Amino acid sequence: AASRAATDPQSLAIAKGVVAYLNGRPAAAIEILKPIDPMSVPADLGAFLALVKGSLLATDEPATALTLLDEARLLSPGTLVEEAALRRSVGLAATQGDAARFALASTQYVAGYLYSPYASQFADSFVSGVIALHMSISQDKLADITSMMDPEREKVIYLRIARRAAIDGLSDLSAFASARAEQGRNGKGNQDDPRAVLYSSLSTVTSATIDDVRARLGTIDRGKLSESDRALLDAAQAVAGEVVAPVRAAAMNETEAAGPAKSDAAKPAETEAASPADAEGLPPVEGAMAEQPAPVKPADAPAAASAPPAPPTTAQAAAEAQAPAPAQPETPSVLPASAPAAAASLDPHDPTDAAMLKARRQLDQIDQLLGAAPK
User: Fold this and answer.
1) Phi, psi values for residue 160, rounded to 5°
2) pLDDT per position as a tens digit, 8-25
3) Quick check: helix, strand or coil at residue 192?
4) How far apart are CA 362 and CA 203, in angstroms?
5) Which residues are 185's β-sheet partners?
6) 136 close to 97: Cβ distance less than 8 angstroms
7) How far apart are alpha carbons 331 and 311 in whole angstroms?
């Protein structure tokens, strides 16, 4: 139809650009349409032209694209053209790192188009933008925007933010969002929602209240979670178990090291030599790592018995530090990159420092485990 049309060159160029756009040739489309100013043609045509050009330039020229999307809104207010332009502006502002523009566009969209059939796409862009701009958007501003939503949509938005923030390690944002999701509105809380319980637990899984977190995770009904959230629950429970294991194992090692020294000092010399089999026969501590300190050789027993009760010797500490640790699945045992200076100051031959080094390695594995959880 465009090839047969007898019309002016600009209208023919617009027609050819639209044909290229509809046929999936964006480079050709923008090359044809770029010289045409949407504000120079009738508004009913200019609005669509501005929307198409803004969409085509979003990747390569985001600042120009935002201007074109503003023109589309100006030329066709209150229509699906404005809805599309505003929705795309939210994502572009987040990509540009423009928190003020992101907050304004989000506020305008929620106020005018929350019930649009395309609102789910806005929700995707909004959640991604909140995560990307978490250092620039205050929690108060976020609450102002979500307060314009109905309670159910607000809960879903906060649940999605809490999940993404927890996986990305943004504990403050995850705690805020999960608390808002659980709190609900008008006195109607969501404490019985397993997703809210899971996401709020993720933000505190390495905190001092780890025993409470483990208990909360144990109350979650797995049958009410999606497959990806079940995998996230498994990861959280594994993390919680790893957090407490080093502490209990270290306490057990200290007890085992101090106990024989005290009892040996009070016994005759002929009963001082303990066999390795006796040491290994002790019952395991619940939740501890499957690891035992190196047994004392019979030849070393007289020397240990003649000394007064004291902390383990350097040789014993070295033996304990060198005891083989259980293999960890698919995660290398390395110290967190964020704490090289602190790690360098620890003495691996000291029992307490050795336990701290081991705990740091396991915390790094925890970070990797959360990072590998399904998005």
Assistant:
1) -70, -40
2) 888 888 889 989 999 999
3) coil
4) 18
5) 188
6) yes
7) 33
Tokens of 337: 């990159």
Please give the C-alpha separations between residue 60 and each of 71, 73, 214, 233, in angstroms, as whole numbers.
19, 21, 47, 40
**pLDDT at 311 exceeding the cut of 50:** no
Distances (CA, A) of 217 to 233, 242, 288, 302: 7, 14, 20, 50
Q: Six-digit token pair at 181?
A: 């999701």
257-266 mean pLDDT: 51
Percent share of the chain, pLDDT over 70? 61
Q: Which residue ranges make up each domain of the chain?
A: 37-149
Note the pLDDT tens digit of each residue in 138-195: 999 999 999 999 988 998 899 899 889 888 888 889 889 988 888 877 666 666 677 7
Calculate the CA 341 to chain-centre distance: 25
State whether residue 321 is helix, strand or coil: helix
Mean pLDDT across the stretch 52-77?
95
Q: Quote the radius of gyration of the chain (alpha carbons, Å).
A: 31
Q: What is the pLDDT of residues 208-261, one digit of tens each?
A: 567 777 777 777 777 778 787 888 778 777 777 776 665 555 556 665 555 555
> Which residues touch 55 (CB under 8 Å, ≥6 apart)?
65, 88
Q: What CA–CA distance (Å, rounded) separates 369 from 219?
A: 22
Q: Retrieve residue 126's tokens.
A: 């909004």
Structure tokens at 207: 């905190």
Give which of 121, 197, 188, 127 is closest to 156, Cα–Cα: 127
CA atoms within 13 A on the CB side of 372: 13
Name the residue with higher pLDDT: 330 or 241: 241
Backbone angles phi, psi at 188, to 5 degrees: -100, 100
Closest CA to 301 of 352, 327, 263, 334: 263
Q: What are the angstrom distances between the C-alpha of 319 and each of 178, 250, 290, 313?
A: 45, 14, 16, 10
Cβ neighbors of 102 (< 8 A, separation 6 or more) are 90, 93, 94, 129, 133, 137
Contacts of 101 (CB under 8 A, 6+ apart): 66, 89, 93
Task: Return the structure tokens found at 200.
Answer: 């709020």
The CA-CA-CA angle for residues 67, 46, 122, to 5°, reads: 55
Question: Which burial class, exposed, middle or buried, applies to 59 when counting CB atoms under 10 A from its CB (0-12, 13-18, 19+)?
Answer: exposed
CA 9 centroid distance within chain:
53
